[in-house]
Design brief:
alpha+beta, 702 residues, Phosphorylase Kinase, domain 1, Transferase(Phosphotransferase), domain 1
Length: 702
């Protein structure tokens, strides 16, 4: 598998692990920049029976959709793709640099109650989402909980539903039955062992991990009550009685006595946390004193009747004069504010954003409630990428005039820039209630949904935009991206082809068209799409690289060499391209050129054991055995358990007649891969040379 490229895209670079259900590898997605890594899981059904395979295939597609839905949660790896090849099923998931929880749960090392509560809350929040999707994980254990390196958040991986694919057999009535209970010994409750997992089965497994953390003992070290089958653990831990009761209810032998789901358990845990908070004395403030003195009775007016009319007349004159003055002042201010607003718009069109902002601010200094002035400030601040201030300006405009649609629209675009997508959608909805035909807002709404990974809603918005503007190639393109994210590759192909019909030099659409076609196993059509990219953008090294992978899969190594040479021309630091170029040279029996290419790959990524291994292979074929041994030494330096490098090293030593050293290399290969038949046969050959068996003595009387 190592070095293979699956469906012309995912190049396997190392093995992560494996077991009865299949193998897990780290791969490079060759159609994405910067050596984007992913995890590839190869699932192997136990039977090749046609009916079994068909059932496994249906189950595989169903479970892949479930995993995709679960992957929308930030703390569950995202499913990137899935496909079938040679009756084997593959899942491609997000690669998360991390370590698993087993590295933190060390023997005899205990966690505090606070640490365990924090851990439980974190995992229960993930399981709450999982259970709400009507999914049972079925294999919650420390190795399936990883801690993401960049933020120390816990991630839940490796759902047991996938493993069910590999444990299907056929009954005589062509119905499937699980032959192996999914789960890990020590963490699997009774009902799950009998093949009937429930939401509370996940709660049991999580509770066992919590007890492991707080006692420092593995599950298999804990005794059970012989009469009730309940786990005996309290004497090994120092915890509050309330928390001990909570843990006991998580791990009850009878699932009906456990918390029914993560939602119920999480609610109970939060109540426990609240109860454990220290009591706080709440003191109400004193009511304010009445500072208003009692009104004193005023003496009756002694004003003479004759002066009353004069006072009334004077008041009327003053009132009228003040009203006229206010009207004139407001009129002048309004005219000045409008003039300033128009000036600001002119400066905005000239891209003089700072000057425009100053003019809009002057308009509001003259007339504080001038709504267009605040709207202008929002636009200028948006152009200056000062999004928080822009949002405040739009909010002020809306506060003054709640039905000001342009301000609502600006608010939505600004919130999108701030990645507050749900609020942005609400703002766009305010606009669309009145202006249903605003295609730009429908597009922006679609973008917000796409950023939330709500791709179906995004597609609906893009369709609305296209209803009003059917030739908007950008709407078609983003619709295509959303469909591709939903793994609806055939519909994505239709969208991308529409983009290219409207704008044939849209290289991003052509590139993603190629990627979608690859996922539909239409390699030759994908090849044409990638060629269209480089027709308009010759330096698009990702498309050259994708072409090279397709050509390697088709064994057209000469054409592949040309493609990879184009990659290295435009991106000389792409170590993967140099490696693939070396592989293509090797397959074309151009071993010296292969050696040069591998060395360039190694110069860029010295610790890539695969490059050292294949460099050694090319040197071996040229009978440069000492050089090959040096290369294999580097390969096992960077990946000690790479059995192929140990085996090939043994072969080179054998050629140099260094038999004891060759024997040691073969032993290492078998150590890391006990079923490695070639290494086993090679070891037997060397052992016979080192310890030849004596010829039997001929006895003529027998």
């Amino acid at each position: 598998m190592i070095g293979n490229t699956l469906v012309g895209r995912y190049q396997i670079i190392s093995r992560l692990g494996g077991g009865g259900f299949g193998e897990t590898y780290v791969a490079t997605d060759t159609q994405l920049p910067r050596d984007h890594q992913c995890v590839v899981k190869k699932l192997k059904p136990q039977s090749n029976h046609a009916q079994t395979l068909e059932i496994a295939r249906r189950l595989f597609h169903t479970e892949a959709q479930v995993l995709y839905k679960l992957g929308t949660h930030d703390r569950i790896p995202q499913l990137l793709a899935y496909f079938e090849e040679a009756a084997e099923f593959y899942l491609v998931q997000e690669y998360i640099p991390s370590h698993d929880l087993s590295q933190e749960l060390l023997p005899n090392k205990t966690w505090s109650e606070e640490q365990v509560i924090s851990f439980l809350q974190e995992i229960l929040e993930i399981l709450d989402f999982v259970h709400q999707q009507n999914v049972v994980h079925r294999d919650v254990n420390p190795r399936n909980i990883i801690r993401r390196k960049h933020d120390n958040q816990l991630i839940l991986i490796d759902f047991g539903a996938v493993k069910e694919l590999t444990t299907q057999t056929m009954t005589t009535t062509a119905e499937t039955q699980a032959t192996v209970a999914i789960g890990t010994p020590g963490y699997i409750p009774g009902e799950q062992a009998q093949g009937t997992p429930k939401y509370s089965s996940d709660i049991y497994a999580l509770g066992i991990i919590a007890i492991q953390a707080i006692t420092g003992l593995s599950p298999l070290q804990l005794d059970k009550d012989p009469e009730t089958n309940e786990i005996i653990w309290r004497s090994y831990a120092q915890v509050s009685p309330e928390f001990a009761n909570f843990l006991d209810q998580m791990i009850r032998y009878d699932f009906r006595q456990r918390y029914a789901s993560a939602t119920v358990a999480l609610t109970a845990l939060k109540e426990l946390i609240e109860q454990q908070k220290p009591n706080t004395l709440v003191v109400s403030p004193y009511p304010p004193k009445n500072n208003h003195p009692q009104s004193k009775q005023t003496p009756k007016s002694t004003t003479k009747k004759s002066i009353v009319p004069q006072l009334i007349l004077g008041a009327l004159i003053l009132t009228l004069g003040a009203s006229i003055s206010i009207y004139i002042f407001n009129k002048v201010n309004t005219n000045n504010a409008v003039d300033l607003y128009n000036q600001g718009n002119t400066l905005l069109q000239l891209n003089r954003y700072q000057d425009a902002l100053a003019i809009y601010q002057q308009a509001n200094d003259i007339k504080p409630n001038y709504v267009q002035g605040w709207y202008g400030q929002g636009k200028a601040l948006f152009a200056l990428a000062e999004y928080e201030k822009s949002l405040a300006a739009y909010d002020k405009a809306i506060q003054i005039q709640p039905d000001y649609l342009d301000a609502w629209s600006g608010r939505g675009f600004t919130l999108s820039k701030l990645k507050r997508y749900r609020e942005a959608i609400s703002a766009f909805d305010q606009v669309l209630k009145v202006n249903d035909d605003d295609s730009s807002v429908w597009n922006a709404r679609g973008d917000a949904f796409r950023n939330l990974k709500q791709y179906n809603n995004a597609i609906k918005s893009y369709d609305k935009a296209l209803a009003w503007q059917p030739d908007n190639y950008q709407s078609w393109y983003k619709k295509g991206l959303s469909l591709q994210s939903l793994l609806q590759y055939e519909n994505a192909v239709v969208a991308y082809e529409k983009v290219l019909e409207l704008k044939q030099d849209h290289t991003s659409a052509a590139y993603n068209l190629g990627n979608s076609l690859i996922n539909l196993n239409r390699s030759q059509d994908a090849l044409q799409a990638y060629r269209q990219v480089v027709k308009y953008q010759p330096n698009h090294h990702q498309s050259w690289f994708a072409q090279g992978n397709i050509l390697v899969s088709s064994r057209k190594y000469s054409d592949a060499i040309n493609a990879f040479q184009q990659v290295t021309k435009y991106n000389s630091r792409n170590h993967q391209a140099w490696y693939s170029l070396g592989w293509s040279f090797h397959q074309s029996q151009r071993y010296s050129e292969a050696i040069d290419a591998y060395r360039k790959s190694i110069n860029l990524r010295k610790n890539n054991y695969q490059s050292w291994y294949n460099l050694g292979n090319s040197q071996y074929i040229l009978k440069k055995y000492q050089d090959a041994i040096a290369a294999y030494n580097q390969a096992v330096k960077y990946k000690k358990n790479h059995s192929e490098s140990w085996y090939s090293r043994g072969n080179a030593l054998f050629r140099l007649e260094k038999y004891p050293e060759a024997l040691e290399s073969y032993n290492q290969a078998i150590k890391y891969n006990p079923s490695y038949q070639q290494a086993i046969k090679a070891r037997e050959r060397v052992e016979n040379l080192l310890n030849p068996k004596p010829n039997p003595i001929f006895n003529p009387f027998n």
